[in-house]
């Protein structure tokens, strides 16, 4: 019988590269964090858009009417942004929960398979 080949992993970078190539470890948690922060960045840009719209409305209209319209646009915009942040957070948490559920089911399956391989087969009844 041939001796097994040694694994050629050297350092943290090689280990990470090997994990990416072989799916030994899933990278979903790190990817979801990046997607979460990118989504918050887009939502922040939307918030700045609402602020710019409110300032533009305030400058274009007459004094009192412009201030009232700008205030309503600003309040409505921040309510929309707050709802977007909550929805984005819950969406990302849903994905994290699904991936953790998948990990838990995988662990349960491995434990069950290990238990069945250790248990001797039942004796034939006759």
Describe the structure.
- 80% of the residues lie in helices and 0% in strands.
- The protein has three helices and no strands.
- Helix 2 runs antiparallel to helix 3 (63-118).
- The radius of gyration is 28 Å and the shape is elongated.
- The two termini are 41 Å apart.
User: What portion of residues is helical?
Assistant: over 70%
Spatial separation of the terminal alpha carbons: 41 Å
Rounded mean pLDDT score: 83
Give the percentage of residues in beta strands.
under 5%
Order of helices and strands: HHH
Largest sheet: none
How many whole angstroms does the radius of gyration measure?
28 Å
Number of strands: 0
- Overall body shape: elongated
Report the total helices. 3
**What low-confidence regions span 5 or more consecutive residues with pLDDT below 50?**
none
Helix-strand category = mainly alpha
Please write out the topology:
Elements: H1 11-22, H2 28-60, H3 63-118
Short overview:
The protein contains 3 helices and no strands. By secondary structure, it is mostly helical. Helix 2 packs antiparallel against helix 3 (63-118).
């Amino acid at each position: 019988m041939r001796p097994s080949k040694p694994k050629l992993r050297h350092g943290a970078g090689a280990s990470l590269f090997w994990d990416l190539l072989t799916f030994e470890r899933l990278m979903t948690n790190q990817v979801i964090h990046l997607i979460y922060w990118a989504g918050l960045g887009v939502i922040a840009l939307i918030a700045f858009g609402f602020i710019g719209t409110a300032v533009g409305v305030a400058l274009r209209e007459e004094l009192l009417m412009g201030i009232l319209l700008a205030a309503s646009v600003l309040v409505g915009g921040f309510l929309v942004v707050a709802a977007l942040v909550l929805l984005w957070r819950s969406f990302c948490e849903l994905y994290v929960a699904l991936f953790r559920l998948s990990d838990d089911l995988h662990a349960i399956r491995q434990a069950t398979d290990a238990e069945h391989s250790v248990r001797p087969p039942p004796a034939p009844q006759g």
